[in-house]
Structure formats: C-alpha cells, structure tokens
Specification:
7-stranded mixed beta sheet; 30% helix
C-alpha cells in the first residue's frame, strides 16, 4: 500500500529521502529486516509513515524482495554489486539519482525515528551562516553520533565514490572525513533505537506494548 505523503507536512526545502533496507542482517539470521513485523506492521511501514512526510521524494535501498518494497510507491534502488556492501553502497546509489541538493538518510529498522529529524538537521545547518558550509549534518543521541540518520549534500558523491572504490566500507571512517555538523537529539532517547537482533526486536515490542503511541 503506497505511503501517503501529505503535502501539508512536507518541509519547505527540497530534500530527497533514502531508507536503507539493503543489508544482509546476519544478526537477525539473514531475515530482511524491513519486512519484519512489529506491532502488526512491517518495520518499513513504521519508517515510511514517519519519514516520508519529511522529504519531497523517497528512495528505498533494497537488494531482495524488491516487489514488496516497490508496493509502497517508492523508487527502489539496488546496489551496483550483489555483495551486500553495506549502507554506503545504498547511499551511493541514491546520490546518483536524487533530484535535490540534499539527501536525508534513515535505516529501515528504526521504528521510532524522530518526526522532526529533517527539520532539526536543516535548522542546525541554517543557523550557522558565518561558518564554512557543512556537507553532512548528523544527529547525536547524547551518547554517540548516528550517521545513518544523517543529512548529506550531493556534493559528497565524488568523495564517497573514491572511498568505496578502494574497498573501504566503514561508515564512521567516511563520516569523520566529512567533519560533520552534529545536532543534539538527546531529548529523544528512544528515537534512534535500531533493531539489529532478536533481543532488540523483543525490546521494541515491549516498548510498543507499554507505550502504544510511541511513534
């Protein structure tokens, strides 16, 4: 069922969006995480319902079950290779085709991601006009930076291509090379909860049972 991206909720700036759902998910037994059910709905549904209204076009990075993701009405992008090369490979594909100057990125396994994620990242960028332009803006949850929830300029594409060409895959190393602007999101402690293991999934189910309006 296509996601309803209500125009009244679309942010003023032209922003492309990417949901990362192309991983191998070894810690989940190889299951396609975007299609794992939480509170009666696939994780990708939770993600898109919150994220789609924040951007003007949306892509899903996926390497299997493409038809199921296409049913959401999004453009589905496969990696250039069939090696499950990680989130940077998905980011690379989206940067190649996005129509706007900025690309917002979120993982599919974060069912409680912030509803104001893109707005706050943009506000942080625009609040520092006297400083050199940052090509990456990322949230900090109070404990660590969350690079897979970032806002990236399309100008990072060449640097990312070079990084991947030499065989590097680690997101944090590439992010550090961009000297990103960090934005404090410590007021939303559950927002960046990732479901990487069955234990994480059980914890998320507990949160939804105790707080039915958590999203």
């Amino acid at each position: 069922m296509p996601v309803n991206n209500s125009q009244e909720n679309v942010i003023p700036a032209n922003i492309s969006g990417l949901v990362l759902a192309g991983g191998r998910a070894r810690r989940m037994g190889g299951r396609d995480k975007g299609l794992i059910t939480l509170d009666g709905r696939p994780l990708i549904t939770h993600c898109l319902e919150t994220f789609a209204p924040q951007v003007n076009e949306i892509f899903v990075s996926a390497n299997r079950n493409l038809g199921e993701y296409q049913a959401y009405g999004c453009t589905v992008l496969r990696d250039h290779h069939d090696n499950f090369d990680g989130p940077l490979a998905g980011l690379q594909r989206a940067l190649e085709v996005c129509e706007h100057d900025w690309l917002a990125v979120v993982p599919c396994d974060a069912p409680m991601l912030p509803r104001d994620l893109v707005t706050r990242l943009l506000e942080a960028r625009n609040s520092k006009p006297g400083k050199p332009g940052k090509l990456a803006i990322v949230p900090h949850d109070g404990n660590r930076v969350q690079p897979l929830f970032g806002l990236y300029s399309v100008q990072v594409r060449n640097a990312l291509d070079k990084f991947l060409r030499v065989g590097d895959r680690k997101v944090q190393i590439w992010l550090d090379s961009l000297h990103p602007l960090q934005v404090d999101f410590s007021d939303q402690p559950r927002a960046f909860m990732n479901i990487n293991t069955t234990k994480d999934l059980a914890a998320a189910r507990q949160v939804f049972e105790n707080h039915p309006h958590v999203e």
